[in-house]
């Protein structure tokens, strides 16, 4: 007997996300690795301190990490879009971006 997907029992998954930060003043680099158990995805980003600004390492960490996480989010959305297409779902107009292209 096949059960409709709407009647599937609840399930839980755990994805592991590691965030690595390295600093070589004036640059901070972030690397995000996401392991879903089925796939591993990676994204990287950097932040650069203006040489005339005061050194506050936490700001570089936050900027680099935030940018790497945004990049990972974009990769996940592209992967989902590809999976939707492969599943044969009808095409829809793309959603309005949640961020500007300059980010």
The best one-word shape is elongated
| Alpha plus pi helix count | 1
Number of strands: 3
* CATH class type of the domain at 15-86: Alpha Beta
In CATH terms, the superfamily of the domain at 15-86 is: Rv1738
Order of helices and strands: EEEH
Structural class: alpha+beta
Unreliable spans: none
- Strand arrangement, major sheet: 1-2-3
- The helix content, as a percent range, equals 25-40%
Under the CATH scheme, the architecture of the domain at 15-86 is: 2-Layer Sandwich
Kindly report the average pLDDT value.
88
In CATH terms, what is the fold-level topology of the domain at 15-86? Answer: Double Stranded RNA Binding Domain
Query: Which percent range describes the beta-strand content?
Result: 25-35%
Distance between the termini: 49 Å
What value does the Rg take, in angstroms?
Answer: 19 Å
Biggest beta sheet attributes: 3 strands, antiparallel
Biased composition (Pro residues): 92-103
Protein name: DUF1876 domain-containing protein
InterPro entries: Rv2632c-like, Rv2632c-like_sf
Organism: Streptomyces lannensis
């Amino acid at each position: 007997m096949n059960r409709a997907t709407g009647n599937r029992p609840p399930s839980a998954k755990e994805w592991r996300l590691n965030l690595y930060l390295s600093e070589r003043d004036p640059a901070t680099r972030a690397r995000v690795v996401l392991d879903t158990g089925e796939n591993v995805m990676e994204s990287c980003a950097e932040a650069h301190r203006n040489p005339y600004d005061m050194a506050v390492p936490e700001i570089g960490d936050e900027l680099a990490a935030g940018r790497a996480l945004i990049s990972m989010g974009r990769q996940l959305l592209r992967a989902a879009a590809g999976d939707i297409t492969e599943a044969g779902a009808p095409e829809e107009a793309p959603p309005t971006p949640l961020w500007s292209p300059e980010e």
